[in-house]
Amino acid sequence: MDVELFSINAVNPNGRKKRVLLGCTGSVATIKVGLLVSQAIAESCIGNAEPSIEVRIVATDNAEHFIVHEDLPKDSKIYTDSDEWNSWSSREDPILHIELVKWADIFVIAPLDANTLAKLAQGLCDNLLTCVARAWNFDKPLLFCPAMNTRMWEHPVTAPHVATLTSWGYKEIPCVEKRLACGDVGMGAMAEVDDIIRHVFASLESVSCDEGSDEPCRLDEFDSSGSSDSYFTDSDSENLQNSET
Ligand SMILES: Cc1cc2nc3c(=O)[nH]c(=O)nc-3n(C[C@H](O)[C@H](O)[C@H](O)COP(=O)(O)O)c2cc1C
Fold it and tell me: Quick check: 11 pLDDT over 90?
C-alpha cells in the first residue's frame, strides 16, 4: 500500500488537523507507542509542511510501566486515570473521558491487551480508557490492535471477545505471529507499526471535520487548567454532596 497516498488523503481540506486518540494498555507492546506516534506524525507531513494529524494518548495505569517517554514527541499529551479524577471537583468541571470522545476523530487502541479486551467486550468501564470506549461516538472509527502472549490469544474466551467488538463496528487490526517478548513464538504480537499507521490513515479518510461539524469540546480548558494542580478537597466533597445530581 502507498503510504504517501494515505498521508495526503489524511489531510483535512478545511485545515484542522485530524485528531487521533491513541489508547495504550498493559501489554509489553506499549514500548512501541513512541515509535507509533512519531512515525505517524512524520508520515502525515508528507506533501505538507505541517503534520496533518494531532495525537493524544490515553494510558491505563499498567500501560505506564511500558511507555518509553524519550521515544515520544516532546509535547505529547498522555492522559491517565489520575488526570480524570484530579481534574474534576465540581459539576461545572469538564469530565475528561467525555471531552476526549468529543475531541477525537478516531480512537485507536494499540496495543489492546487481554484484560482490557475482556472489559470492553463486557461493557466494563472502570478507568479512563474504558470510559472513553464506553462513551464512544459510533459515527467515528474505533480501531483496536490486540497484543498478548500466544497462550492468552488461544484461550477460548479471546475469539468471542474480538468478535463482539467487531460486531459493534470496531475495526480489528489483527495480531501477527512472531517471537514474543517472553521468548515464545506464535500468534499474539501487535500488528507492525507500518500496518497500524496505514489502517489509521485509511480510516481517517472517511472522517469529515468540516467547519461547524465539531462537537463543542472543553479539552483545551482541561489542558490549560493543569490537571495535576487540582485535587479533591473536603469542601469539594461537601459541595458535591449538596449539589443536585
Ligand atoms: C511484563 C509484562 C508484560 C505483559 N504483557 C502483556 C501483553 O502483551 N498482553 C496482555 O494481554 N497482557 C500482558 N500483561 C498482563 C497485563 O499487564 C495485565 O493483564 C494487566 O492487568 C492489564 O491491565 P490494563 O488492561 O488495565 O492495562 C503483561 C504483564 C507484564 C508484567
Answer: no
Instruction: Provide the whole-model pTM.
Output: 0.89
Cell numbers at residue 111, please? 496495543
Taking the alpha carbons at both ends of the chain, their separation in whole angstroms is 51
Cα–Cα distance, 171 to 168 (Å, whole number): 9
Atom of ligand 1 nearest to the CA of 63: 27
User: DSSP alpha helices (H): ranges in 110-169?
Assistant: 114-122, 128-134, 150-154, 158-167
Residue 160: DSSP 8-state: H
Ligand 1: residue of 22, 28, 60 to mutate (most ligand atoms within 8 A of CB) is 28
pLDDT in tens, 91-104: 888 999 999 999 99
Three-class SS of residue 171?
strand
Which residues, at least 6 apart from 197, have a Cβ–Cβ distance to it below 8 Å?
3, 36, 39, 40, 43
Distance between CA atoms of residues 179 and 41, nearest Å? 28
Residues framing ligand 1 (Cβ under 6 A): 25-29, 60, 62-63, 113-116, 147-148, 152
Instruction: Name 85's Cβ contacts closer than 8 Å, sequence gap at least 6.
Output: 232
